[in-house]
Amino acid sequence: MAYDKKYWKSLSEYQDEKTSRQMKEKEFIDGVTEGFGLTNLSPISRKKFLALISASTAFAMAGCSNYKDRGEIVPYSKKPEDVTPGVANFYASTCNSCSQSCGILIKTREGRPIKVDGNPDHPINQGKICAKGQANVLNLYDPYRLRAPQYGTASGRMGELIWQNADAEVIPKLEESVKTGKEISIITHSIHSPTTKKVLDDFTAKFPVTKIYTYDLFNDENRKRAWNKCYGTNNLPVIEWEKAKVILALEADFLGTDGMTVEQTRKFADGRDIMKSKEFRKLYCVEGTMSLTGANADYRLRLRPGAQLEFVLGLINEISNKLGVINALPQSVSLKSILNKYSLDENIINHLIDDLLKNRSQSIIYAGNILSEEIHVAVNYLNEILGNTKLYQSNRMLTSLTTLTEPKGFEELVGKMKSGDVSVVIHFDSNPVYHLPKDFGYEQGMKSIPLTLSLVESYNETSGLSTFVLPINHAFESWGDFQVRTGIYSLQQPVIAPLYNTRQKEAILLTWINGKDSYKDTIYHEYLMNRWQKELFPSLDRRVDFKSFWYSSLHDGVVKYDETAKNDYSFNKGSLTSIAPTQSTSGFSVALTENYFIGDGRFANNGWLQELPHPVSKIVWDNYAAISPKSAEELNLENNDLIEIILADRKIVLPVFLQPGQANDFISVALGYGRSNAGPIGTDVGVNANLLLSKESIIASRVFQNAVVKKLEGKRELVSTQEHHSLDDEFVKDLHIKRKIIQEGTLEEYEKNPNFLHEEKHELFNIAKTVEYNGVKWAMAIDLNKCTGCNVCVAGCNVENNIPVVGKEQVGKGREMQWIRIDRYYSGTNENPSLSHQPMLCQHCDNAPCENVCPVVATNHSPDGLNQMVYNRCVGTKYCSNNCPYKVRRFNFFNWRDNLADGYYEGEPISLLHNPEVTVRSRGVMEKCTFCLQRIMEARQHATEQGKVLVGTDVRTACEEACPASAIIFGDMNDPNSEISKYRKHELGYRVLEEVNAKPNVTYLARLRNVNEEKTA
After folding, report:
1. Whether 283 contacts 297, CB under 8 Å
2. Is the pLDDT at 700 greater than 90, yes or no?
3. How far is CA 108 from CA 113, 143, 481, 752, in A?
4. Cα separation of 133 and 911, whole Å?
5. What's the mean pLDDT when you consider all of the chain?
């Protein structure tokens, strides 16, 4: 095959370092088998031990007169109408884990939420959500949540605080502020709920001295400001990604963190669906950081963010000349000079320009949120020249309910706090002490305020310095509405009563507006319904009464209506005057990026998210300074070395990670780590890189120039899963190629020869009789053209199957428990590598090597083709794991819930989180993917009840349901008309390690790269 490559997982493997070879030569990581010796073994054989233990268990049971008391069992005295024990209920709501506000379906069992998935009726996310949305249910049951109002340290008081006393103290202070003219400050994040915005407006009307300050650690303010300059509005357009044949991403991780990533992933993947069309969307990526989007690019160029403006200006100049249009820019930059200056591949640039010109009005150039306003203006102009404004939806726009506060506004606020002109500060579910740049001196300003209030779910850095800490409801305990796009409202409803003595944050403000003793549980619910009835319902022109409309809307979770969007895309060329000439820089540049899973730090105490491997580096439980191997060599740096990054008078110390594909003289650092008050799981995890933020960076670029980097003594170990489960390549040289674990080709090659993948056939034979499966036979297919490696399937599997969190130390020993892993392979050079992702899970082999070595038949095969695990039979010999060629089995070395953080995940109410349909496994048990057997059994039961035959489409596994790219397909392979059957017969379909004749039931569709054939050598 012309596209053969040698793949590698890390730089140490690429450079064939001794440590990498030693790691693969050993079956276990250092430290795992310490203290083991043959002399310490019992003289009793395994066979005799099993016989004795079975007999002793039988004797013990025969002698028992009673079982362990589990507490009194109390049945329903009157069963709730909508609850049937053992049957799940689903409720439509809205996720508020990030700004996308996706529609969700929350699965509840006996009144407790246990699983979250996307709402398929929601027009934006269409049944998909991100990893944070999947894992948010853990935050509901987090033992660190506040359970009642608390006195903060600023109060100087101890003891119990009750809501009535808090209201009695707060309301007079608010009224006194109005009389004295002193400011009431509300610090909040961007508001995406129109009704919440109305509550804040009503609060301001009641207390006119109120001023609202809005910030977001991650925002698209530069994009909005540039759009306003170019088109006269802050409402950004909705891009029709599905119509873009060519995409150019400039430091833009639109598949990971920038924009509406769930929707963008779906639309991007849909344009690479080989089952629908052989026309593949082409993705170019120009970036300094190796991002998830860059990992999925057909062509990727390394370029520091500081050079992006020059690059865009050069593109504008080149394309304007080729089109014969007048370049309205005040300066002209030669693209040729840019190529020479930054050593960019001229062939790739030529392909890019040709593709953009051939696909005018069918391409999009998209700049990242961290880039400057000037770059966004230039990108808008380039899209204008190419006619790409035709990809902006004419009847939809992104809505913006609030505007971020300027740096000058926060400077004035802190000044007023210190001078005594502010009497009350309300932190409306915000954490400015952690988020805001230290230059503002916000923490010092708080000390001068008579009354500081924190409305939060859990303690944080700001609440620790407040007068009162007032606990608020989790999203699953709350009412609400959200609007992020014109013509669409998404509704939120509580699916469980508040677990603790908490209140919804809007209800707290309404109580203070209405006066003491006005609070009731339904105060915000009634306010929300009243607003909808009076302000929205009359304009919707629905032919039903309001109550019918309201219940129907709650059932659907979304309201769609016609709203005329004023989309006047008339470009203002005067905006180009804001583009200043580029200035030369020296030293390193530093980009502060968004983490894929813990966001701005609010998910720091979520163990599931902390333990999800970074999609590219595979590092868990940490942030780090990503640096190119060449720059590391110049500074004499190795992985885990400590460096100090200095920007003016701001500095931090970080461990180093050598990232292939990183631009030279450039460092990227993820924010959201280094929390000092985040709970037992999240406190002191990683480094607080917010310390590098300047005042201007809260609304400006998060790329900083002229940084000084110094190597320090010492190391800090970074734990990565990328070296785990490597096969032993001592026996098979270049195993990734010869064993065809990853199979790829080019689109051009596939068009010429659709069967190129199977020109080499393995001759396989069985020594045992082949089992025939005449009924349903379960199988899975994974399309590597659509899979982006985002890890959402891993998050969904964690929640569905009660996967435990093991912690950084145990992951370092290779003991992570996730049933799916996303293998990441590099090919090429460490300067310009190509990345390949492959989800790897139990293959449910027909000739499963694990089954015939288990001494207690704990793993066996079902009549419908499943490789089963009988947990209460397993005695932990680990023979099955040793015999598995895919290394997908996980062993419970400990009771993980008790082992981590002094038994944190055995504290209440964590037990309410567990899916009752899946066993909570104990220590000493082997476990692995079951193809969501519990869902298969449920579907079989429903089919029996309805008197019909079970079909493959009746079952959707958790990973299939979670995948935002719809890359995972599950069903009955024996049904010739099923989708899974078509995937298994596709010419791009292959099975991993087919030559060992394990006969796996997971089929992979080989990835095609939309590149020119001459670039694949």
Report:
1. yes
2. no
3. 4, 20, 21, 51
4. 20
5. 87
Is-contact 957 907, C-beta < 8 A? no
DSSP string, 114-154: EEEEE-TT-TTTTT---HHHHHHHHHHT-TTB--S-EE-GG
**Scanning the structure block, which residue is given the tokens 């660190």?**
144
Res 668: pLDDT: 95
Q: Kindly report the backbone phi and psi dihedral angles of residue 69, in degrees, each rounded to the nearest multiple of 5, phi listed first.
A: -70, 120
Cβ–Cβ under 8 Å, residues 151 and 161: yes
**Percentage, residues of the chain above pLDDT 70:** 89
Q: Any bridge partners for residue 117, and if so which?
A: 105
Cα→Cα distances 873→310, 378, 844, 915, Å: 65, 65, 19, 21
Query: Using CA atoms, how far apart are residues 777 and 444, in angstroms rounded to an integer?
Result: 65
Contact of 928 with 890, CB cutoff 8 Å: yes
Residue 655 in contact with residue 624, Cβ under 8 Å?
yes
pLDDT bracket for residue 896 (50, 70, 90): confident
Judged on CB neighbours under 10 Å (0-12, 13-18, 19+), 179 is exposed
Q: Provide the token pair at 458.
A: 């859990």
Question: What letters, b where the CB count within 10 A reaches 16 and e where it falls short, cover 737-755?
Answer: bebbbbbbbbbbbbeeeee
DSSP run (H or E) holding 403: none
Give the model confidence (pLDDT) of 504-534 as tens digits.
999 999 999 998 889 999 999 999 999 999 9
Rounded CA separation 859/869 (Å)? 5
Flag the least confident range among 83-87, 232-236, 407-411, 854-858.
83-87
Q: Which of 53-62, 441-450, 751-760 has the lowest mean pLDDT?
A: 53-62
At residue 704, the 3 state secondary structure works out as strand
SS3 275: coil
Whether the pLDDT of residue 843 is over 80: the answer is: yes
Residue-wise burial string across 569-582, b where 16 or more C-beta atoms lie within 10 A, e elsewhere = bebeeebbeebeee
Q: How far is CA 699 from CA 11, 216, 370, 596, in A?
A: 36, 9, 10, 21
How do strand 282-287 and strand 7-8 relate by DSSP bridges? unpaired
Q: Using CA atoms in the order 754, 757, 761, 767, what is the torsion angle rounded to 10 degrees?
A: -110
Q: Which helix (H) or strand (E) holds 105?
A: strand 103-109
- Residues 6+ positions from 513 with CB-CB distance below 8 Å: 202, 203, 206
Q: Is 863 exposed, middle or buried (0-12, 13-18, 19+ CB in 10 A)?
A: exposed
Q: How many CA within 13 A on the CB side of residue 170? A: 31
Helix (H) or strand (E) holding 24, with range, is: helix 18-25
- At residue 740, does pLDDT exceed 80? no
Cα separations in angstroms, 373 against 288, 332, 367: 18, 19, 10
Residue with tokens 């809260």: 698
d(CA 775, CA 950): 10
H or E segment at 631?
helix 629-634
CA distance 473 to 815: 35
Q: Which two tokens stand for residue 759?
A: 């020109």
Contact 143, 907 (CB under 8 A): yes
Among 661-670, 747-756, 924-933, 935-944, which is the least confidently predicted range?
747-756
The mean per-residue pLDDT over the stretch 92-117 comes to 92
Cβ within 8 Å of residue 489, ≥6 positions away: 194, 481, 482, 483, 536, 558, 559, 561
pTM for this prediction: 0.89
Residue 1 clears pLDDT 90, i.e. is over it: no
Q: What is the pLDDT of residues 570-597, one digit of tens each?
A: 888 888 888 876 766 778 999 999 999 9
